[in-house]
Amino acid sequence: MKPEAFAALWIDAYSVATDTGDTRQMRAMSSPQCKTCQALAEQAEDVYGAGGSITANGVTNEVTDYRRSEEYSDNHLLLQLRVKSAAGVTLPKRGAKKIPFEAVDTWWDFELKVVNGKWRVQEAGFTP
Q1: Are strands 61-73 and 76-85 parallel, antiparallel or unpaired?
Q2: Which letter does DSSP use for residue 97 in this model?
Q3: Does residue 73 sit in helix, strand or coil?
Q4: DSSP-H helix ranges across the chain
Q5: Quick check: 77 pLDDT over 80?
Q6: What span, in angstroms and rounded, lies between the C-alpha atoms of 43 and 4?
Q7: CA 72/CA 13 separation, integer angstroms
Q8: Phi-psi bin for 58: left (phi > 0), alpha (psi -120 to 50), beta?
Q9: Among residues of the chain, what percentage have pLDDT more than 70?
Q10: Rounded CA gap, 4 and 21, in Å?
Q11: Could you read off the pLDDT of 47-75 as tens digits, one per residue?
Q12: If 0-12 CB within 10 Å is exposed, 13-18 middle and 19+ buried, where does residue 95 land?
């Protein structure tokens, strides 16, 4: 699998995590050392675990462009994906007041590395 396709699948797994609270696929695609990956997964788990939800108005996250920024080797590189994220609301816990969030169009930065024959996100971040 090409690293661009893998990173796009990670964004899909992140969308599932924010839409449902199910972070299994996202965590499986991420290195345990990826601090951003772990923080995003924990955020979704905390919200859904407290009876809350994250609801987007439309497609949660859509990849619209990509670019490689640095290649260390065939199995280790930096990649950027441009992602459009829909506006919506977060219900932090059951009975809480809904918190709106705005749509964003941002570049996500990924450090990808092949581990045991499969791509893994080593670190991720985004730039508004």
Answers
A1: antiparallel
A2: P
A3: strand
A4: 3-20, 24-28, 35-49
A5: yes
A6: 25
A7: 26
A8: left
A9: 99
A10: 25
A11: 999 999 999 998 899 999 999 888 888 89
A12: exposed
Report the amino acid identity of residue 107: W
Which token pair is 76? 């280790």
pLDDT of 115 reads: 94
Question: Distance between CA atoms of 91 and 78, rounded to whole angstroms?
Answer: 34
| pLDDT (mean) for 8-13 | 97
- Calpha distance 56→15 (Å, rounded): 10
Domains (range + CATH), the chain? 3-127 (3.10.450.240)
Structure tokens at 39: 């923080």
| For residue 45, pLDDT beyond 90 | yes
The Cα-based distances of 61 to 8, 56, 109 in angstroms read: 10, 9, 15
What would the two tokens of residue 36 be?
A: 């951003």
